[in-house]
Amino acid sequence: MPVATAWLDVALMQGIMAAFFGLLLRQAWWWMIIHVLFFPLIVWFLLLQWGAWTYLLVSSVFILVFWRTITGNVPVFFSSQLVVQAVAELVEEKDIMHFAELGAGIGTVAKPLADNYPLLKVHAFENAPLLWLVNVWRSRKMFNLHAFRHCFWQVSLANYDLVFAYLSPSVMSKLGAKVRTEMRVGSLFVSSSFPVQNWEADTVIYLDDWQKTCLFCYVIKENHALEVHY
Ligand SMILES: C[S@@+](CC[C@H](N)C(=O)[O-])C[C@H]1O[C@@H](n2cnc3c(N)ncnc32)[C@H](O)[C@@H]1O
Questions:
Q1: Residues lining ligand 1, judged by CB closer than 6 Å?
Q2: Reported confidence tier of residue 5, pLDDT bands at 50, 70, 90
Q3: Residue with the nearest Cα to atom 17 of ligand 1?
């Protein structure tokens, strides 16, 4: 058997075993696809023996897109059209003037909102360089959308009427504390898919997209700034 095929077989067996343990650990179904394909794809790319610069290029693009995914605990994936529509309805219904998106990606939500509501001021915060650059390019002719390459933890939320986030369960508790400390009474925080622990949402909007997204809407009723001890 050629060495290359043998390596691919070993990699595939490793992937199948990883998927098997994934099943035992009751991981979501899409993890099985990742488990089965991850190692064989790495081996396959290595066996192709392309020029060294191609590997450098691919890894650079991955780094510029995924940036602090591992340390920040927030992966990259994008909102659906139904999410954009639902957030647009909230903007209209609540007469929102200042909107912020935390972890804006390529502007999937921020860009159409700014397009449809020229009087709405939209601030999009993203720390992955390539995603931010795409958003900068997409908003280059717009005056009401500003794409910042900032870590949203460093940004004050005091001036926004609506803050939207689609992040990950692991940051929601910390983000909830930030929101309650900084956002004005009467303003609205909307978290896509992930609720804030120990904070009951005022409204939950259920969407019929492929992810069956829920939008958890929190009206800020009191400012907790004085309760935070540093
Ligand atoms: C799940 S994606 C959501 C993208 C976009 N908001 C959407 O709904 O389509 C989360 C994004 O947050 C970004 N992100 C994670 N931590 C961040 C941080 N501390 N500051 C700024 N952006 C962050 C990631 O790079 C990623 O693009």
A1: 67, 72, 74-79, 101, 103-105, 108-109, 125-128, 131, 151-153, 166-167
A2: confident
A3: 103
Q: Residue 188 Cα, ligand 1 centroid: separation in angstroms?
A: 19
The pTM of this model reads 0.85
Q: Mutate which of 62, 76, 109, 191 to test ligand 1's pocket (most atoms within 8 Å of Cβ)? A: 76
| DSSP state letter for 137 | H
pLDDT tens for 106-145 read 999 999 999 999 999 999 999 999 999 999 999 999 999 9
pLDDT value of position 229: 45
Shortest-distance Cα residue to atom 11 of ligand 1: 103
Q: Which helix (H) or strand (E) holds 63?
A: helix 52-66
Say if CB 144 and CB 120 are below 8 A apart.
yes
- CATH assignment of 81-227, among 3.30.565.10, 3.40.50.1240, 4.10.400.10, 3.40.50.150: 3.40.50.150
For residues 66 and 169, the answer to whether their CB atoms sit within 8 Å is no
